[in-house]
Design a protein that fits this description.
12% of the residues lie in helices and 38% in strands. The strands form 4 sheets. A 5-stranded mixed beta barrel has the order 1-2-3-5-4. By secondary structure, the protein is mainly β. One of its GO terms (molecular function) is mRNA binding. This is 30S ribosomal protein S1.
Amino acid sequence: MMETLFYPEGHRLNAPENLAAISSPAALSEAQRAGRILESRALMCDGAHNLLVDLNGMRGLIPREEGALGIREGTVRDIAILSRVNRPVSFIVQDFIREEDGRITALLSRRAAQELCQREYIDKLCPGDVVPARVTHLEPFGVFADIGCGIPALLPIDSISVSRIGHPRERFLPGMDIRAVVKGRDRGRINLSHKELLGTWAENARRFQAGETVGGIIRSIESYGVFVELAPNLAGLAESKENIFPGQQASVFIKSVLPQRMKVKLIIIETFDSEPRRPRPPEYFFTGEHMEEFLYSPPESEKIIRTVF
């Protein structure tokens, strides 16, 4: 993957070079000449859906049609603008105008920043590229994440982790910074995956030993046993037990770890209900910038689980 100069919104907000560029009209003019992408916080959205932006005392204005890619064409709803209030926005300075009261207003374009990001970065991404992303909002079917200048990508729920979950909020919070791998494109939008970065079966199983009693989460109850999540990419199978329910916390005894069968056998000691835990930032086993494939299965296993990008 190429070295990127494009990041999710908020990444450059407090960077020294960004703060310097919005510190004065002269610095903003220089950034305009260079075509630099800057960031600041949107203060409000007026009745015409223009965004007002804080520029260190100077007024910045992002006209509605410059608020996001697709607004002008009608393919993106205005919620893409309204939802940026009190949040960082990326923009390119386009002009300066003098208001009737003598104040100078900088005309800004978030759309132009997104067009540049799309052309120079997102259009060049390939399957297997690992990118930084920032979670913007959660839906039952998956996660929308900003992969550059506010441009969204979709991370489906079944690609978040090997261990299945009921809702993305079990893993993520809006505003959380994550890494994700490019899986492909659907009608121009990048589709992401995440589970390939969370470690193989062997990498996760290595943390657990037979004879230990550890914590887990009841994920599903089947006729042949109960699946208990030990880690986002590792679940074990326990014998059935009465009065247990998906989503409960559990303490489980590890009977055996069987790489050949890719199984962790468990005994449920106790289950209990608790308040939902605040998701913690993911722990990544893969820290590179590109992967050609991901082999989840251990070498000893006859069953092959593989993702090829």
